[in-house]
Task: structure prediction
Amino acid sequence: MSGFARHRRSRRVIATFTGFEADLLRSLASQLVELLRNEAAVPREDQDPFEAMMDFSGPETEPEDPVLARLFPTAYREDPEAAAEFRRFTEGGLRDGKAAAAVAIIDGLEEAGLPPELSEDGLMIDVELDEPTAETWMRSFTDLRLALATRLGIEDDDEDYWASLPDDDPRSQAHDIYDWVGYLQETLVGALSR
Result:
């Protein structure tokens, strides 16, 4: 995979993934969507659509899951009441936005030809994104990296630790995925800035 680039003529952002890479990216995005939606409030089926849109009865406490706590940090640490109110009014919309961004990755890969179940060796997936969709993917890459970093316990200046792990260590392999998503994000930022 060579990362993202800007197509000279169409000005769209393009990348080519192997089937394995595309399937891995779809899996990561799917797991993020599942995590975001599992703890989200489920609207009632009989609820009026306008009432649902104006419903600000979101959570008031920090999520227990460390990944969600990292994705939705407490806004006012020194003022629990203000933090609860802020979370109640904003977290639902933020969750929806992050889930929609991850779904955009899944949809983009599947629209580019990634089959529901990967079974072909040598499959290549060519993705072309317009600028707004590319920006959505970039935001979701940030969320994916935060999720991976939280699960792995990655901290600033701990590169030597990760480099010291044997290649067959599952933590090393997971860290390689974290680095790969960072590479995708970096090349996407570069392509968008051209």
